[in-house]
Amino acid sequence: MINTYIPYFKKKDQNILNQCLKTNFVSTAGPLVKKFQENFCKKYNFKYSVAVNSGTSALHLGLKALGVNKGDSVILPSYTFAATANAVIYNNAYPWFFDCDENFNLPIDKIEKILKTKTYFRKKNLVLKKNNSIVRAIIPVSTFGKKLEFDNLMRFSKKYNLKILFDTAACHDPKIFNFKKNNKMHFCFSFNGNKTITTGAGGIFASNSKQIVNIVNTLANVGKKKSKYDYEDVGFNYKMTNVQASFGLSQLNNLKNILLLKKKIFQNYHEKFKNLKSIKCFFDPKNQNWVFVLIANSNQKFKSIKKLFQKAKIQLDFFWKPLHLQNPYKNFMREKLGFSEFIWQKVIVLPSHPGLKKTDQKKITKIIKKIHD
Ligand SMILES: Cc1ncc(COP(=O)(O)O)c(C=O)c1O
After folding, report:
1. Residue to substitute in 188, 190, 289 for testing ligand 1 pocket (most ligand atoms within 8 angstroms of CB)
2. 371: pLDDT strictly greater than 90
3. pLDDT of 372 higher than 80
């Protein structure tokens, strides 16, 4: 089977894991979690971070630390992984679903127009007219690991007094984060097995705000701050383990190489597909870090590719299905979601892992070109 994603391990990953076993540090105790946090911060240009057991946990605690409370509303795209909305619901708040634009960004100008008619300010808080719920935060999502318009989104959130938590779960090219951040910008990453670098399962909350990071750290650590059985809060058992961190450290060391290998694959795909008319590349030549995406001009085309991929044992599934179309989320507030509904059955995520062989790339290319003709 040619999978969409498989982790990329080296002999060194095994050695570091063995070291963990030898020292008996396999739980959340152990020196490597702190080291992983430090190395992550150095590489991705953050001041502070908290390593946790999943990207979902990072989102959950991030929102909580930012003060998302019972009955609040949170702006997010419907075209995202369930965890983005679940994190809002875990905090007893309500997702407010918005469409994305053709570049899979939240369209700020359109959102502003909607806010003007549907909300008002009360004591500096943005409030929904419909139910008096405070619109507390916004979660921009990095779709396919793409670079976000961080500064524009920051300006927007400031104007409307919204907390901002960037869901950059799959955005693992450190150069994307090499910009000046203020301490109101907070970020969540995933290290799940299908991401560019992995800790098996795992995630990290990263920010330049010591205060917010301290809150997330306490919450992730069962509410403990200092001594073993003194609790400050009703916390969660969300910390990353030493074993996961050991993987994370060697993956971080190999990240440059992983990105280089992926770049070659993505450039090859782009070269082969850039002139197709009915299938478009969603490709940023400057930032390629997770998966290579094609957009078919019809669902029929997606189905035809899937059929031939299945025969050739190449994995292809629908990527995200907009959340507002699904049972657990269909009753939450939403705006017009025309683009999300139009696009989701046309998104083709090609096998994109760094170990993908040239012969497999050829097989994939041949099928796409055949369908196109
Ligand atoms: C956009 C987005 N947010 C959050 C997550 C959750 O991360 P995890 O699977 O590590 O909980 C994912 C995982 O794929 C994701 O794609």
Report:
1. 190
2. no
3. no
Ligand 1 lined by 81 (C-beta under 6 Å): yes
- How do residues 217-263 score in pLDDT, each as one tens digit? 999 999 998 777 899 999 999 999 999 999 999 999 999 999 999 99
Residue of 192, 236, 238, 352 to mutate, ligand 1, most atoms within 8 A of C-beta: 192
- The Å distance, Cα 191 to ligand 1 centre, comes to 8
Which domains are seen in the chain, by residue range?
11-250 (3.40.640.10), 256-372 (3.90.1150.10)
pLDDT at 334 over 90: yes
State residue 256's pLDDT score: 96
Q: Is the pTM of this model over 0.85?
A: yes
pLDDT in tens, 126-140: 999 999 999 999 999
3-class secondary-structure state, position 52: strand
Kindly give the pairing relationship between strand 73-77 and strand 135-138: parallel
Which residues are within 8 A (CB) of 94 and not within 5 positions of it... i.e. 6 or more apart?
Answer: 71, 72, 73, 74, 88, 133, 332, 333
Q: Does the CA dihedral 66-72-75-80 come out positive or negative?
A: positive
